[in-house]
Amino acid sequence: MTPRTTTSSPAAPATALPDGTTPSPDAAAPAVSPLPSLADQAERLIALGVHELAGLSAREVRDAVGRLALNAPLGGLLAVHPRLAPPSVLAPLLRLGDKEGFVVVDMDDVDRFEPLEGLALPEGALYVVTDVDRGDDMANWSPDEALPEIARRGRTPLVLSEGIHWAVQVPDVVARNHCFMTIGSRLRKDEGRLDSRTPAVWISNGTGRDGKARRGAPKVGWCWAGNRHTWLGFASGDRRVV
């Protein structure tokens, strides 16, 4: 498959919601920079110390990427398996300007969010997600509405750690009024029901418990599965490659 060179420019026509209405986007979505090469993504992760956080050597990362590059199409997203680099470890590596990323205080269980049933991540320490897209055309859909549409398109929703990896490599994928949810990750309660929260990556307004000092910082938070937000798309990929 030929990789997409941008994900969101110009803005795609709004997709009709399941109830038949068509949302009006707030503004044209800004362009998203293309992903660097897998080798360059690996070097960025190494420079940030992700390999050490994951218990890997720099050589192991480079060797794995060399193998992945043989099978993955250009433009893919390099991801470290969340069992080695969970969201709580990755979130502080996010940057917008001089602002550091963070996880909202009422999501202290963020690392308990796991892939949805039927969404299997590769077993290897590193893998590639191909043809990632921010899902701007589904802005103002709810997660409950977006998930079956992503499946209908033959795509896979990103899990939270993958979304954070993308924003680490391409900070401008998190843009004011054009951020994204990662509904491939959900928390299953002890009795087996899904928690109603769905994770997302967006920009803090510095209100409430975020604190004024965090205004403009990249933020890992959550939204209810049944709620719609005009400023959140639904990040997805084509497939995962090992």
Write the layout of secondary structure elements.
Blueprint: H1 38-47, H2 50-53, H3 58-71, E1 77-80, H4 87-90, E2 95-96, E3 99-100, E4 102-103, E5 114-115, E6 126-129, H5 143-152, E7 156-157, H6 160-169, E8 179-181, E9 185-186, E10 197-203, E11 218-224, E12 232-234, E13 236-237, E14 240-241
Parallel strand pairs: 4-11, 8-12
Antiparallel strand pairs: 1-6, 2-3, 5-9, 6-14, 7-13, 8-10, 10-11
Helix pairs in contact: 1-3
What does this structure look like?
The protein has 242 residues and is an alpha+beta fold. Helix content is 21%, strand content 18%. It is built from 6 helices and 14 strands. Helix 1 packs antiparallel against helix 3 (58-71).
Largest sheet: 5 strands, mixed
Cα gyration radius (Å): 17 Å
How far from one another are the termini? 16 Å
Q: How do the SSEs run, as a string of H and E? A: HHHEHEEEEEHEHEEEEEEE
> Going across the major beta sheet, what is the strand order?
4-11-10-8-12
Number of helices: 6
Low-confidence blocks of residues:
1-13
Helical content (DSSP H or I, runs of 4+): 10-25%
- Total strands: 14
Structural class: alpha+beta
Concise structural overview:
The chain has 242 residues and is α+β, with helices and mostly antiparallel strands. It has helices at residues 38-47, 50-53, 58-71, 87-90, 143-152, 160-169; strands spanning 77-80, 95-96, 99-100, 102-103, 114-115, 126-129, 156-157, 179-181, 185-186, 197-203, 218-224, 232-234, 236-237, 240-241. The chain is built from six helices and 14 strands.
